[in-house]
Amino acid sequence: MKVKAVPSSWIHGERRRLDVGPFLYGAVEARERIRRLDAPKEPLKSLTAGPGGGIFNGPQFSRRWVTDPAHGVPFLGSSSMLLADLSHLPLLSRKHADLPKLRHLEVRPGMTLISCSGTIGRMVYARPDMAGMWSSQDIMKVCPDPVRIPPGYLYAFLSSRFGVPLVTAGTYGAIIQHIEPEHIANVPVPRLGAELEEEIHDLVELAAARRAEAAKLGGKATRELIASAGLPDIKHPGSVQPFSVTAALSSRIVRRLDAFYHSQFHLDALQPLQSGPATVTVSELAEAIAEPGRYKRVTVTDSSYGLPFFGTSAIQWSDPATDTFLAMAQRGLEDLKVSENTVLVPRSGQLSGIIGLPVLPIGAVMNGAVSEHAIRVGCRADFVAGFLFIFLRSEYGRRQLKARAYGTSIPTLDVAQIGSVIAPKLRDDVVEAIGSQAIRAAQLQTEAIRLEMQARSAVERPISGAA
User: Fold this and answer.
1) Which residues of 186-218 are buried (b: 16+ CB within 10 A; e: fewer)?
2) Rounded distance, CA 390 to CA 379, Å?
């Protein structure tokens, strides 16, 4: 239970509004702080331009999927927009996307993307590698008018600890919550002076550039791995369970009888590796593959006495966030901590979801605690972890991990299944060159997180100091 005392003047100022949300979660306090700030304020709708005045989401529509990138556009949902790696997005039919009613759903760099259905108020700054993607109706776009306001500054304010409560204050709905463009149109945006706003904008733009550079490095490293191993390029199939009919030798079904393991989806990754010059298993490349034990989590509210704790969804984000901290004195905490020499592999979930999608720790995940639902692949050096990450994230690794999952309701991976995945055996210098690019990409992602935090802090300081 949460309890908060507020002055009666706040209730009068909100026209005697008595629902607890805006008072408890900071919307009224944020509005009061901004009101007292000795700086001009402008309503959000006066600073935007584009469809719907520059603040809009989209119509509900049936989605038509394709598998060929030549005929499709990557499609962002309110969850996938948070991801650090956007290379495995589903493809919406380009012909469908270009219809007049959907054309405005194209993402352009500089927009602020806000989740407006389900979990409300998550925000992302549209970076260069998002250009040409389409978004769902569950993402609200705020398109700043660059003549009126620097886009990066507007994002930094809206995603700050004062902006988020104002954005979410208009939330409605009991089961599935929503906000609409009109609910945020009059959010007061403080103007902190051209020089400071440009500095904040530059920080956000630099963060976006770092994330785009990291994505480019990851793609480059993957192509180099495939070329160095002499493997054919496998296209993303769109679905992890496409229809296929295959025949399997009786000797191959002694250990695994499930059809997906013997599907063409899996064979397309296995056969080129098995017919290549040399392979090595993940267990041979790694120093250790471990799954932490399960035990009660002892949490604390003060971060100075706890270690940030992440689930397997949050570690996939470009800016991993958590409000859960494990007590430093908790038994078994060392088993949950991760380092830069570790690849994290989610061990459970749906096949179309995060199961088997490896992660290199970034931001607060580094040296933080991660759920036991992530299997740890520990390596002797960071570049080996980087190489394994690149391979396991490629179609050759991803398909093997997905196909090795077992179970019906909630598919599961274990240490043995991950360890048995086969990879091309490459020269040490090639492994180091490829792995080092992955490590550099992770470092760029961490730097981007730091830059955005710096930008938000620059917005929050003058507002926090308002008497």
Assistant:
1) ebbbbbbeeeebebbbebbbbbbbbbbbbbebb
2) 14
Q: Could you give the CA distance from residue 385 to residue 431 in angstroms, rounded to a whole number?
A: 10
CA distances from 307 to 326, 334, 340 (A): 5, 11, 17
Question: What are the distances in angstroms from CA 417 to CA 258, 281, 285, 359, 387?
Answer: 14, 11, 14, 17, 19
Residue 252 has pLDDT above 80, yes or no: no
Domains located in the chain, CATH noted: 43-195 (3.90.220.20), 231-275+279-424 (3.90.220.20)
Quote the radius of gyration of the chain (alpha carbons, Å): 24
Give the CA-trace dihedral at 291, 297, 300, 303, to 10 degrees. 10
The C-alpha atoms of residue 15 and residue 123 are separated, in whole angstroms, by 29
pLDDT, tens digit (0-9, with 9 covering 90-100), for 268-285 = 999 999 998 899 999 999
Structure token digits, residue 401: 């991990």
What is the predicted pLDDT for the residue at 18? 59
Would you place residue 344 in the very low, low, confident or very high pLDDT band (cuts 50, 70, 90)?
very high
Whether the pTM exceeds 0.85: the reply is yes
Q: Please report the sign of the dihedral spanned by the C-alpha atoms of residue 259, residue 265, residue 269, residue 274.
A: positive
Burial class of residue 235 (count of CB atoms within 10 Å of its CB; 0-12, 13-18, 19+) = exposed
